[in-house]
């Protein structure tokens, strides 16, 4: 088996290290591809439209079932 170097051992054997955590977080955030303003607005509008349509459909179906329940009972 190959020996691990001291940096790998120190990284894996210690407790939680705030500076390493924040450095790793920053490195990962630099890899993120952020959307453009136009893309953000259009996709947000699409999400809001779908949520509104879904909520309206659920409201109408609930009203229909409520009306049917009143007719039956």
From TrEMBL:
**Membrane-crossing segments per the record:** 46-69
Q: How does it sit in the membrane?
A: Single-pass membrane protein
Checking Pfam families in the record gives: SecE
Signal peptide coordinates: none
Query: Which coarse location class applies to the principal site listed for this UniProt protein?
Result: membrane
Tell me which UniProt keywords the record has, alphabetically. Cell inner membrane, Cell membrane, Membrane, Protein transport, Thylakoid, Translocation, Transmembrane, Transmembrane helix, Transport
The record's annotation in InterPro entries points to:
SecE_bac, SecE_sf, Translocase_SecE/Sec61-g
What is its subcellular localisation? Cell inner membrane; Cellular thylakoid membrane; Membrane
Self-association state and partner proteins as the record states = Component of the Sec protein translocase complex. Heterotrimer consisting of SecY, SecE and SecG subunits. The heterotrimers can form oligomers, although 1 heterotrimer is thought to be able to translocate proteins. Interacts with the ribosome. Interacts with SecDF, and other proteins may be involved. Interacts with SecA.
Q: What family is this?
A: Belongs to the SecE/SEC61-gamma family.
Q: Tell me, in a sentence or two, what this protein's role is.
A: Essential subunit of the Sec protein translocation channel SecYEG. Clamps together the 2 halves of SecY. May contact the channel plug during translocation.
Q: What name does UniProt use for this protein? A: Protein translocase subunit SecE
**What is the organism of origin for this protein?**
Anabaena subtropica FACHB-260
Its gene is: secE
